[in-house]
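Could you please consider the sequence and fold following this short note?
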Amino acid sequence: MDSTPSASVTPPSESGTPSGDSSRPAAPPAPSPSESTTPAAGGGDLASTGSSGTVPLVIGAAVVLAAGAGLVVAAGRRAERA
């Protein structure tokens, strides 16, 4: 048998204060993650997150691809002659 005296512990209530202690007001609930303090969308410009120079990159890729295709065709014709 256990001769240790058991202590009566009162669990805290949902408001965060021990039950029976109504001297302190309950704290306001914390805002949920879906609640935002920022203004709604459409209120301004978005931040720049990427490159705005995609057109020159696409043109450069097309030139390199065409040059590679030309080299393949030239190598094929050269192999036929040999």
User: Anything to note?
Assistant: The two ends are 102 Å apart (CA to CA). The first helix runs from residue 54 to 81.
